[in-house]
Amino acid sequence: MKLTYQVEDKPKFGQVLVFALQQLLAILAATIAVPAIIGNGMSPSAALFGAGVGTIVYLLFTKFKSPVFLGSSFAFIGSMFAAFAGGVTASLGYFGLILGAVFAGLVYVVLSFIVRACGVEWINKLMPPVVIGPTVAIIGLSLAGNAVGDLQIGKVLNEEGASVASVYLCILCGLVTLFVTMICSVYGKKMLKMIPFIIGIAAGYVLAAILTIIGNGAGIDALKIIDFSAFSKMQWIPDFTFVSAFFKEPFGYGEVGSMGSYILTIAVAYVPVAFVVFAEHIADHKNLSSIIERDLLKDPGLHNTLLGDGVGSMVGAFFGGCPNTTYGESVGCVAISGNASIITIFATAILAIVASFVAPFVTILATIPNCVMGGVCIALYGFIAVSGLKMIQGVDLEDNRNLFTVSVILICGIGGLVVSFGSVTITEVACALILGIITNAILKNRKKDK
């Protein structure tokens, strides 16, 4: 995949700011969606701050060699709900979120030491291209429903919580975003070619804003796509998790002995999920490695990417409550824009931190309608899927051993195979990967027919 800027390249200062804004737009919707889903007073601004700090921590541990942004992880949503209401006589609330993130981060730390001691060759043998390729594809394909779902809704909701805007107008705004993005990426020259998301999102937002203004003036709900009332509810200072945990919330532990039960509940909720996200961590870095044509599992090393991800999650949760993870949207943005410059990722992290204190800026970003982001995500998630499929170009699919392995992963992943054990959910990506590893292990020793 041809890159305009490699990892160590340094674009001009002005360009870096624009590229950083594009990366921020790519990861924004998912990063602030997690605190919005959890509720309980969680702050999207604080989550953005935590993502920025967590990314800087990750960059430090990976020696500024892995160009990817860390954002709020959807995998831990069930765990975070458990932290607020652990099913015991006491709940530590925000302190429980920090505690849970520490448990999850420690899993990564332990795994990093294991990898440091044993190397990464066992991972390459366990997950060769025939396994990891379709798994990366599933990461993109499993998000297809999210992109198409967002494409059909706006920000203005009725009393039932449903979008009031016309589905067809929402789709129109999303498709305008998508096609402007594609045209800029394919036909654009120089800078225009490298910032297709900014231009695409701006085009979709302007169209949605015009329709909304007309709808507000004429009283036509079908035209109301953007919720401008968000500006009257701006949060000027992020409500950091550690502030709520240590200064705002009383430490009422309930009955004697309940504290130990609660901590155990948190551990059970977070630790298994961390092992699931570990599989996705490897897939993301394999994908990113194929894009920048450098093996990140060897340099800076999987042990360092795991340490960065784990410690970054702890730090991010300390500020925003949400454990972080490497973002496929960020990887897709690197691929489409052709910009893998690590300076851009660092600038994005700084921008996220600064932006979390600039209420109007955060609010403008938060008012970008779902349909516009859906249009962008069609391209982002599609690129992730295609990147995975490119990994199996060298795999002999005439061989039934490989054909069955790829088939099992694709069908289980696209079909949405999810397994739950209490509050622990093994995602479709993890299920597909596990079944792919098992299938490949069973079949790989069978000699190919001549």
Relevant terms:
450 residues; mainly alpha; two-stranded antiparallel ribbon; 19 helices; 4 strands; 68% helix; globular
How does this model look, in words?
It is a single chain. This protein is mainly alpha-helical. It is 68% helix and 3% strand. Helix 6 crosses helix 12. The two termini are 34 Å apart.
- Report the helical percentage: 55-70%
Main sheet summary: 2 strands, antiparallel
Q: What percentage of amino acids are in beta strands?
A: under 5%
Count helical runs. Answer: 19
Describe the protein's topology.
Layout: H1 13-38, H2 44-61, E1 70-72, H3 77-84, H4 94-118, H5 121-126, H6 129-141, H7 144-151, H8 167-187, H9 191-194, H10 196-218, H11 241-248, H12 258-292, H13 297-320, E2 324-326, H14 328-337, H15 342-355, H16 359-366, H17 370-391, H18 400-415, E3 419-421, E4 424-426, H19 428-443
Antiparallel strand pairs: 1-2, 3-4
Helix pairs in contact: 1-2, 1-14, 1-15, 2-13, 2-15, 3-4, 3-12, 4-11, 4-12, 4-13, 6-12, 6-17, 6-18, 6-19, 7-17, 8-10, 8-17, 10-17, 12-14, 14-17, 18-19
